[in-house]
């Protein structure tokens, strides 16, 4: 396929307001249109395509909305070839020009080689790059070096509603012939150097409620004679992490993989300009001074962030209230081999311990609202070697071997349900601004990314 | 005036969303409407009324909003009579039905003899009771036993912006003929026994801002390498008070008046059913077990309350955000002879000390948003004796001689600028829930309170 044609398709796709985060019928219709357009394109490519109806999404307000179908598609079923399954999503984060977009977020606009538009890098561009790579073989009337499968959803930004259910159901059908799973839904850590991602952190999100009564108090009328819930909560939250970022929950580091010299060397090999990173993030000073320490604390050590408090006075101005019931929110990013349910027990025990020492008459309830496992792959798997070779061919360089500090739960899910090797091959540059205003993908990344996937097919055929 | 008519006016007044705390044009317009309605009512009563324009309120964000006019009104100028000046306010605390109100906060709703609505007890009900008492003499075509003046403002809940300036200016004009000042802006400490208040605590309201950058961060992408502002803020707030309510700011107790045996006896004389107090407040357990300790910690010892945090995640649900800039809010209730500017220095020095030990790269700014002095009166002044007699007449009992844990800064201000005796004659019951959800005034309190003020006028005429 002619790259220009690929860019035209990206323009068409970005023009669809396939926002899955705002649960309103208009965007949901756009999502259905988006999935139909993609299914049609795959069909024209010669794939067998199933658009699987996933039923209704129940909303917190009691209403429901239809879930866009998940596309399962197959191209080739030669038993002598390896089968690579590509995962992607075609829904996007909300975007509104009034929030600071310099161009219409739903009109793909090229400025200085950058293609601006919502979904350009997350994840419509990479999905199209993969399709473009496949269609290049078709256009050249060459056999595909590998069998290709696609699983494409439209609810990723809303938590991949229904995806796990489908993967579980298709484990021994659609996924039975799959050898490798490729995801391309994150970014490089540099503007010019490609990367391969072999791990992501998990996340345990906690809520700790401290309650005296449901109503608030006036601080003049009751201040001085109460165990105030905010005093308890601030003490609880203050017991979690010290000023150097070290988590104070006993036992929390017990299962963290020991650091080896070999692993340190992998961080040394990565290109990261700290000064540029600091400036582009608008941060005066990080907790650590070296590249290696920073990468390790983003990727291979857990971190604890306090997000906020629900139920306290949070508006501008000066209100003299003693909140009667408050909920503190914090989360711990998990790394191999931390276990979600062990962490839940450690955090709960720690908070109960701190709380009991206060002799407060308030009630405390700890709950884990979300528990997502960390994921790590074996970087000596076939497809990691193939991806490295393809990057050398297309970009003339070794890739940065990176992890992602955020959670990409589908990587872990595929690994656990399908039991096949998963790799993340990002195409976008570090400054693409996914989820942010003025999201873009560079034209260079989009075109070279298409070439990278084509080269990857050829390398996979050789190594399989 | 017919009490039913009085209740109807209270309904009209409560319907006005005269919220002075949230600095937005909509509420400010409501405040202007409120003040105009009150001025009109006083005029119809035959008073000479001046609505004094107080200019603009400068907001922290650089914007400004008009300050509602302060009403000065006079009824009678007989030089043989004493002149009593009544202070009240018609602005209210914020109220939102979603916060747990069982009825619309701006629709006065009677349930079992209780009149629910924002401002019903604080302070629209008592202001109307005073007006009703005056209009009762008018309706009976009797001469008023005393000359009456009114000073009514609309910014009390926002710190009485501009009031002091006006009192200072009117010191030798409007206030020159005033002999006594009556305020009715607090509550009894019982559900059925009236009280007279001779002291109030002051208040120092602090904001402590911790900033990394203006934008928030994603906790996956940055968690682990930042000095997170929330961790700093939680540590700062956690350094302020221990679990027994003891304030940890060095030197804060130095100027608190020493306790004598005689003073302890005054607390012993007060009727307070701890069990009932606990139940009506829906509190499982207070910090202290005896009546005397509880009264002392509400009235004669300082207290510190943490109100909340601005800029953090405060909504329901689980958002993985690292807030970039957060503002913690807390206040210290001051008692004789603590000094506002000394407290400001002590708190600032303490927070700077705690913050510097954290070695954080964030910026911290401490500011005192509000500094209000404590107040204490001589309980042998004429109007204290008159109020006691009036209470005996209307309620058939001795009043509780109490202080108020809240701040009524105007008491101190009137005492210092006008140099006249100030008394607080509360009308509302202990469970009225001022500043809280489901604020109410009992119908009984509202009607007997009107009678009490009328009897007070007669006693004042005798004793003056």
From TrEMBL, chains A, B:
Which positions does the site annotation Important for catalytic activity cover?
A: 218
Task: Give TM regions.
Answer: none
Q: Which UniProt keywords apply?
A: Carboxypeptidase, Hydrolase, Manganese, Metal-binding, Metalloprotease, Phosphoprotein, Protease
One example of a Gene Ontology biological process annotation: proteolysis
Active site positions: 91, 156
User: What is the required cofactor set for this protein?
Assistant: Mn(2+)
Q: Name one Pfam family in it.
A: M20_dimer
Keyword Phosphoprotein recorded: yes
Q: InterPro entries this protein is in?
A: ArgE/DapE_CS (IPR001261), CNDP/DUG1 (IPR017153), Cyt/Met_Dipeptidase (IPR051458), Peptidase_M20 (IPR002933), Peptidase_M20_dimer (IPR011650)
Q: Does the keyword Metal-binding apply?
A: yes
Q: What PROSITE patterns does this protein's entry cite?
A: ARGE_DAPE_CPG2_2
Cofactor info, note text: Binds 2 manganese ions per subunit.
> Domain named Peptidase M20 dimerisation: which ranges?
207-356
- Protein family per UniProt: Belongs to the peptidase M20A family.
On assembly, the entry states: Homodimer.
Protein name, as recorded: CNDP1 isoform 3
Source organism: Pan troglodytes
